[in-house]
Amino acid sequence: AGGESVGMSAVQLVANDGFLERLTSRWADSAAHDEADWLKEVRARAAERVSELGLPSRRDEAWRFTDLSALGALGGLEFEPAAAQTLHAPFADFERLIFPEAAATRLVFVNGHYAPELSDTHDVPAGVTFTHLRARQGAVHDLPVATHLTRHADINHDVFTAFNTSLFPDAALVHIARDVVCEHPLHLLFIATAQQGPVLNSPRCLVVSERGSVCTLIEEYVGLGEGVTLTNAVSEMVVEEGAHLRHVRLQDEPRTAFHIANHAVALARDACYQSIAVTLGARLSRYNLDVKHQGPGAESTLEGLTLIGGQQLADTHSVIDHAASHGKSTQLNKCIVDESAHAVFNGKIAVRRDAQMNDAKQQSRNLLLSARARVNTKPELLILADDVKCSHGATVGQLDEEQVFYLKCRGIADGAARNLLTYAFAAEIVEKIPLVSLRSRLSVIIMDRVHAHAAAAATTS
Question: pLDDT tens-digit profile of 160-171?
Fold first, then answer.
């Protein structure tokens, strides 16, 4: 596109303490390299970029609100690359992670390694390949693996993408053939656990929806126990001409965890991508979402909900790149921040010079439940075309006292009124999730946290 670059801004990095390089070399020493030559070459290039880039610091514009010093020498943590291990099913609480709508269309990975004892693919329909990379070694020619795996997520400018690419032990592979309609959602469950010392977990995911296909995908990240884990996830999704991909992403790891994720989406002509991302867990989380409208008429709808408290920090960065004409994008990101938590949202909409007749809207809405809660929000527009409709906006505030008063006038107690309004703020996103069981689970989580906040506030007062 005329040499223009409008993706995630290049991370300008300072000298680091070798944290990432040590982990990369540990994996290289222990890994079995029984994989295709093209992937070995990509891994080698990615490892070089890890050494060249290093960890970002708060001096970098893209990371100025997110302090990663706890991951390096300053944090005193020594992560080890996770080895394959067996979690015997059913382990405690595993049933709560199973969605009835996707009970037999589920792939499970534990610390980035495929867990056959926890997976179930009996209901995967004809025309859908739902497997993992290690199972396809030597037989990937019937899948577009070499065409797309590692080709969309940028290893040149993002150190965590390069880091994941250099050492991911396996990858979830989802391929929906042309004109196939998946009646059941597909569930990818990534479990992080640390039994002895801090553990690095490197999940990888590739989804290819061919022309005219329709699919719903659930991508879920959870943690077991209270051990310290670092999940560094990368997902690549390709939606071909006229295909429709609904994607729900849920991150609910313990507050001892670190979670970094990079997600790249490529949309062809008339492709449709709908995303709902829900962030609940982790001590520190960062979600980078990069959506590129490569073909004319592409459409994306991105919705996000962050619900955090305590000392949590949740950072969401997104880029919607309109590289073709007649596209449409709509983005709504909501944050509910309690106690001393800190939420960050940075969303960029870019329209390239020749990408005329695009329609893009972006909203960032944020609710603070305490005087110590913080939100930094920065919606951005980069418009290089002259025939477009683009808008953005941001709000940060507390509950509307007039709305609270309105409910109290109708006999609802003050605490119940505030709980109801907080839940309603989140429900605008939750109610759009296509799985009834997931909506119910999230509703319970949200109500529990809202009630906990109300109880804490009452005790303090």
Answer: 999 999 989 999
